[in-house]
Amino acid sequence: MTITPFAIDPEALKQTLVSTLGDLAKSIDLKLGEVTVVVAAQDYLAAAKLLHEAPGCRFEQLLDLCGLDYSEYGDGGWDGLRYCVSSHLLSISLNQRVRLKVFAPDDDLPVVDSLTGVWSSANWFEREAFDLFGIVFEGHDDLRRILTDYGFIGHPFRKDFPVCGHVEMRYDPERKRVIYQPVTIEPREITPRIIREDNYGGLH
């Protein structure tokens, strides 16, 4: 494997991606020195395979994959699909990076293809996005919760998930198992100090 000593020019990478992906890409943007590719859900897997295998791309590693909920993006001004999956890819051989984004076409049941067949590292990342956002990855061999409890209801990173619950869980040493019980901590509101006395904290 030949290692390129310096990162490729981002504009040159953008043009390579334009010619490689063609109509598979809905948009390819260059901002702050980073290239972002957005594809439609039906083209997601095909685009990923090209990014992995095409000579000018050769993104051998998937560094990160996460879910996003755009429902409150721009203070509620977002007018588009709600759930997005964003992946960060690295080419070691060509010393370049790209961000790949796809929006699930159905807000009620967000489904996109799994990338585990292209990059095995997508496995736990996709399980996390499924657990926290409820995004289903079609083709994933073991899609189950990874951070919350098996009986957990809901997806905590969704913007409409309640910030205060009514049930808490703990391990009961006598029963030797996890039990659920009503929340024992009273909710409270903390108001920050906004009025200061003269010379408060030595300020003049």
What does this structure look like?
- This protein has 204 residues and is α/β, with parallel strands linked by helices.
- The protein has helices spanning 10-21, 44-53, 122-133, and strands spanning 25-31, 34-39, 61-69, 83-91, 96-103, 111-113, 136-138, 167-172, 177-182.
- The chain has a domain at 10-148: NADH:ubiquinone oxidoreductase Nqo5 subunit (Beta Polymerase, domain 2).
- Helix content is 17%, strand content 28%.
- A 5-stranded mixed β-sheet has the order 1-2-5-4-3.
- The radius of gyration is 22 Å and the shape is globular.
- The protein starts with 9 loop residues before the first helix and ends in a 22-residue tail after the last strand.
In short:
It is built from 3 helices and 9 strands. It is α/β, with parallel strands linked by helices.
Write the layout of secondary structure elements.
Elements: H1 10-21, E1 25-31, E2 34-39, H2 44-53, E3 61-69, E4 83-91, E5 96-103, E6 111-113, H3 122-133, E7 136-138, E8 167-172, E9 177-182
Within CATH, the superfamily of the domain at 10-148 carries the name NADH:ubiquinone oxidoreductase Nqo5 subunit
| Share of residues in helices | 10-25%
Mean pLDDT figure:
89
Secondary-structure element sequence? HEEHEEEEHEEE
Report the sheet-strand fraction. Answer: 25-35%
Q: In total, how many beta strands?
A: 9
Shape: globular
Which CATH architecture of the domain at 10-148? 2-Layer Sandwich
Termini Cα gap: 64 Å
Largest sheet: 5 strands, mixed
CATH fold label of the domain at 10-148: Beta Polymerase, domain 2
Radius of gyration, CA atoms, in whole angstroms: 22 Å
Structural class: alpha/beta
> Which stretches of 5+ consecutive residues score pLDDT under 50?
none
**Oligomer classification:** single chain
**Strands of the largest sheet, in order across it?**
1-2-5-4-3
Number of helices: 3
Q: What is the top-level CATH class of the domain at 10-148?
A: Alpha Beta
